[in-house]
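I'll show an entry:

:::
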Amino acid sequence: MLKVNLEDLKKLRNETSASIADCRVALEESKGDYKKALLWLKKRGIEKAEKKQDRKTSLGLVECYIHQNGKVGSMIEILSETDFVARTDEFKNLAHEIAMQVCAMNPKDIPTLLKQEYIRDNSVTINELVKGTIGKLGENIIVRKIVRFEI
């Protein structure tokens, strides 16, 4: 068994918010290669998300974003399974990022939004961003409504 570098373990945990156990396994599976461990965790998060996609989501929040010029704004409704998850910083950050995406990219509907490249990292789609958060938080998350306003 590979001895895991503690600094890499801490860094991976801080960067991904994945469990310490998952970070350890990712580093072991990737033979200590940090970049491969990140990919392993991303794949694992997507697999976890796919298992949860049929679970009922009825709690969440409404997030608004107004662009700095005040002429473009968006509002989204994003749902999780429990209020506990909806109150987490990770969930709130996801909601904010998606509202900002809607404002910046003006998707015509939710399927289009989910296929778009994330404006902060074009190697990730919004769907992958949501699935990654599902993997971290352990609950199903859906974007239920999006609205964009422009003057």
